[in-house]
Amino acid sequence: MNTDCDYSSAYVSLYTDSNLVGHGMTFTIGRGNDIVCQAIKAVASRLLGKEIESLFADMGKAWDHLVSDSQLRWIGPEKGVIHIATGAVDNALWDLYARARQKPLWQLLVDMTPEELVKSATFRYITDAITPDEALAILKAKEATKKEREAIVRSQGYPAYVTSVGWLGYSDEKIARLTRDAIRAGFNHFKMKVGSDLADDLRRCRLIRSIIDEPQYLPDGAERTRLQDSPALAAKNAGPTGAVLMIDANQVWDVQQAIDYVSSLAEIKPWFIEEPTAPDDILGHATIRRALKQHGIGVATGEHAHNRMVFKQLFQANAIDVCQIDSCRLAGVSEVLSVLFMAAKFGVPVCPHAGGVGLCEYVIHLRRGLPLHPRR
Predict the structure, then answer these.
(1) What whole-number distance in Å separates Cα of residue 266 and Cα of residue 11?
(2) 193 belongs to the catalytic site
(3) pTM value?
(4) Domain of life of the organism in this record (predicted)?
(5) Which member of 236, 312, 353, 373 is catalytic?
(6) Which of 180, 218, 225, 243 makes the best surface tag, with the fewest CB within 10 Å?
(7) Annotated catalytic residue: which of 83, 189, 191, 193?
(8) Is 353 a catalytic residue?
């Protein structure tokens, strides 16, 4: 789908009348940066002359202010270039907040009380899915074990999956080499791109499966039993070594095409198909999910879900098995918090996408005690 990518980012820095500076970014794949940078300037101008401590005292209200320019909303509202630019500015404001408190962002958020976290999110347009009181109750229910979970993250790191093994256009030799390298590096969750040619995809899937399911490739000292029986890997189609395969189509299919294509790949038992169709098609995702359930394959999306309302409808329609927030697509930390609250209420596991990696350290603190998904 994206055949001529130039992976790049648009940055913004917020300066104060002290030495404090906050930095934010958003992501495009090339020329979009030129457009986004102009939008960033327009959104950031909303903060000119503001007293930073008053913004920090109510980050949810600060976020509402960023998206409330009545003229800029006409070319949104809360979607497209303006919304992406708002994400960069909001992330920069959060970075400024963290630097002012001399903490990394994840620590700033983890140290917040449940009341402070709820106050930092935005609930406009989503109270039919979750209310502030419900979000507060979710956080309070998990508060007693927060330090324990923080200790786990500090000692083990936050889990991740690898996607570099499965790009389209790689030779079989390169795929095999990168897959073995990833196993040696400790990965046991692998994602590959599909959608250009069914026969080619099936061959590549079989190749990756033949390596990740083979105990001989595990690092010395690694567990060589049937790790797919582990509760943490339940419902993820893990193979005999505990390895999990995911596939990603980047929105290339219509609904029925997605069902037919992925059904043809069922033998390689992926955990989920990511972005099987248009990111705004909530009912299409729900249809695909229902059809693929017979194969034990889930549906994931979120990389191009451009606001919390899209996620709200995905949850309400039971359209996804995995929520993939991206802090460079959503409008920054405050909106990410809103989506995390909804994911917790609906019991949908969160697997942050590329731009979400910078925020994923604190996702564990907002989950409902579900097993971790990818492994570092």
Answers:
(1) 41
(2) yes
(3) 0.90
(4) Eukaryota
(5) 353
(6) 225
(7) 193
(8) yes
